[in-house]
UniProtKB/TrEMBL annotation:
InterPro entries documented for this protein: Carboh/pur_kinase_PfkB_CS, PfkB_dom, Ribo/fructo_kinase, Ribokinase, Ribokinase-like
Gene3D superfamilies in the cross-refs: 3.40.1190.20
Molecular-function GO terms, alphabetical: ATP binding; metal ion binding; ribokinase activity
Activity regulation annotation text: Activated by a monovalent cation that binds near, but not in, the active site. The most likely occupant of the site in vivo is potassium. Ion binding induces a conformational change that may alter substrate affinity.
Keyword Cytoplasm found: yes
Residues covered by the Carbohydrate kinase PfkB domain: 2-291
GO biological process, one term: D-ribose catabolic process
Chemical reaction(s) catalysed: D-ribose + ATP = D-ribose 5-phosphate + ADP + H(+)
Protein purpose: Catalyzes the phosphorylation of ribose at O-5 in a reaction requiring ATP and magnesium. The resulting D-ribose-5-phosphate can then be used either for sythesis of nucleotides, histidine, and tryptophan, or as a component of the pentose phosphate pathway.
Descriptive protein name: Ribokinase
UniProt gene name: rbsK
Keywords: ATP-binding, Carbohydrate metabolism, Cytoplasm, Kinase, Magnesium, Metal-binding, Nucleotide-binding, Potassium, Transferase
Species, as recorded: Micropruina glycogenica
């Protein structure tokens, strides 16, 4: 059964520096490394590498970064017929990494801003036959709202990874099966300060507010799911030495979607997400760190 990931595609421009520059200061850093990223493209690649039938619907610019994204998706087996080219630059994340592993990131959405309801209508043939549509918050909210309504109407399973953290309107929440969030994002959607409630309690509250099911990722602590009947299922993370957690959340979401599309339930989807994310954190990069099915 097929997965359509609708979302962002960004070039990650990474420079390592000894420390963050102060205002008005110029620092010399390492060689520039440009890698394919963006939450939508990452999740599509993660699912594609696992052998799932995946199409990506998004937008890049007519530039080298757009070509980089297209190549990365296609080499993971992801169909890109629904990828438009806009007269704006490909989305880009300027990432400065300090020796403690901490990142400072500025994102320029560029062509991702063209992932509009109009573009969705143009590519209706691509997503209307999907088993699952997966979205995130790096494209305009009106597009998420539009697709949530379309999926509800047509009986297409809608998975929203509400990242980066932003509020989720009630009608969107009601379509999510599951809503996938980390702890910070969960607290923001519930509307309480971070750490104000236990993750399972946040999950139950999200279910009360209308989500059909909820998955909360907890970094090295693992993840939990709140099933439609309110049952809470937890899954520990694997004990591994993490070298780079960039894109771990996206690896988890892409792998979950692959499991759900192959007919597995949410518990099994958590297990596959955990396995794939554990491999991803032990390698550098986002898409470059994701395993193929035969590596698991
Ligand atoms: P990011 O934004 O960095 O991609 P996220 O906040 O969306 O991440 P996390 O909760 O940090 O997502 O991680 C997702 C999943 O990846 C976790 O549920 C866990 O299974 C796995 N994971 C993350 N960090 C580690 C780690 N240090 N060791 C093992 N597994 C990890």
């Amino acid at each position: 059964m097929s997965i359509v990931v609708i979302g962002s595609a960004n070039a990650d421009l990474v420079i390592e520096v000894d420390r963050r520059p102060a205002g008005g200061e110029t620092l010399i850093g390492s060689d520039l490394v440009i890698t394919p990223g963006g939450k939508g493209a990452n999740q599509a690649v993660a699912a594609g590498l696992l052998g799932a039938d995946v199409a990506f619907v998004g937008c890049v610019g007519a530039d080298g970064n757009g070509d980089l994204l297209r190549r990365s998706l296609e080499s993971a087996g992801v169909r890109t017929a629904g990828m438009a080219t806009a007269d704006r630059p490909t989305g880009c994340a300027l990432i400065v990494v300090t020796p403690d592993g901490e990142n400072s990131i500025v994102v320029s959405p560029g062509a991702n801003g063209r992932v509009t309801p109009d573009l969705m209508a143009e590519h209706e043939a691509e997503w209307s036959r999907a088993f699952i549509v997966v979205m995130q918050h790096e494209v305009p909210l009106e597009t998420v709202t539009y697709m949530a309504a379309q999926c509800r109407e047509r009986g297409v399973r809608f998975v929203l990874n509400a990242a980066p953290a932003a509020d989720v309107p009630g009608d969107v929440l009601a379509a999510c099966d599951p809503l996938v969030v980390n702890e910070t994002e969960a607290a923001l959607v519930v509307g309480v300060p971070a750490d104000a409630a236990e993750p399972a309690e946040l999950g139950r509250q999200l279910l009360d507010r209308g989500a059909r099911s909820v998955v909360i990722t907890l970094g090295a602590q693992g993840s939990l799911a709140v099933l439609p009947d309110g049952t809470v299922v937890t899954h520990p993370a694997e004990r591994v030495t993490a070298v780079d957690t960039t894109g771990a959340g996206d690896a988890f979401v892409g792998a979950m979607a692959a499991a759900l599309a192959s007919g597995q339930n949410i518990e099994h989807a958590l297990a596959l997400g955990t396995r794939v994310a554990a491999v991803a954190v032990q390698r550098r990069g986002a898409q470059a760190s994701y395993p193929r099915r035969d590596e698991l």
